[in-house]
Amino acid sequence: MKRWMLAGIGLLVAVLGCSTERSAPVSGRVTFDGKPLAGAHVTFQPLADGSADPGGGSYAVTGADGSYSLQLVQGPGAGAVVGKHRVEIIMRNENSDVNDQGNKRPKFAVNIPAKYNVSSELTCVVPAGGKSDANFDLKSK
Question: Residue 108's pLDDT is what?
Answer without folding.
Answer: 57
